[in-house]
Every structure is written in structure tokens, then in C-alpha cells.
Amino acid sequence: MAQKKKVELTRLQGAIAIASFSSGVTIAAVCLFFIPPLGEIASSAVSIVSELLVLCGAILGVKASYDVKFRKFEAELQDVREHETQPTT
Predict the structure, then answer these.
(1) What is the pLDDT of residues 39-89, one digit of tens each?
(2) What is the DSSP string of 8-77?
(3) What is the Cβ-side half-sphere exposure of residue 45, based on CA atoms within 13 angstroms?
(4) Would you state the torsion angle of the CA atoms of residues 46, 51, 57, 60, taken in this order, to the nearest 10 degrees?
(5) Structural domain harbouring 49
(6) How many domains does the chain have?
(7) pLDDT per residue over 22-44, tens digit each?
(8) Eight-class DSSP state of 87
(9) Rounded CA gap, 73 and 89, in Å?
(10) Which of 11, 27, 67, 88 has the fewest beta carbons closer than 10 A?
């Protein structure tokens, strides 16, 4: 049961990472290139928000990828351990 929760958490992290990365890129592209500023908002304020969203997406994406690879490695080790403990006839 705990394994299933870990998989769901990793999928959720992956979805949040993709959403965060996409929204960061979208904010940067729209605000910096397509919409003229309406007031006294500096482009650096918009760029820092988009950079933080991209950073958040990257960190969560790397963690989700690491979790998947670690779980796969753990399963391979478990298979090797089971094959070693089986009696040979």
C-alpha cells in the first residue's frame, strides 16, 4: 500500500513540475514579449516570477525522475536477492 502512495506522490510531483515549468515559460513569454506594461511593473519582477516557477518545476521534475529510477533500482535489487536465496537443484 505504501508503494502505491509513493507512485501517486511521484505522479503528482511530475504533474506539478510540468505545470509550474509551463506556467513560468508562459508568463515570461507573454509578459515580456506580447503585452506592453500597464503601469510601473519592471520586467525584472516578471522575469523573477517566471524564473522561480521554472526552478520549482525543474527541482520537482528531477526529484520525481530520481524517485522513479530509485524505485526501479530497488526492484532490481529485490529480484537479485530473491534469486540468490532460492535453492538450486
Answers:
(1) 666 667 767 777 777 777 777 777 777 877 888 888 888 888 888 887 766
(2) HHHHHHHHHHHHHHHHHHHHHHIIIIIS--SSS--HHHHHHHHHHHHHHHHHHHHHHHHHHHHHHHHHHH
(3) 5
(4) -130
(5) 2-85
(6) 1
(7) 887 787 788 777 777 676 666 67
(8) P
(9) 28
(10) 88
Yes or no: say if 47 and 28 are a contact pair by the CB < 8 Å rule: yes
Residue with cell 515559460: 25
Q: CB of 53 within 8 A of CB of 23?
A: yes
3-state class (DSSP) for residue 36 = coil
Q: Letter for the amino acid at 85?
A: T
Please, which residues have CB within 8 angstroms of residue 12's CB and are 6 or more apart in sequence?
A: none
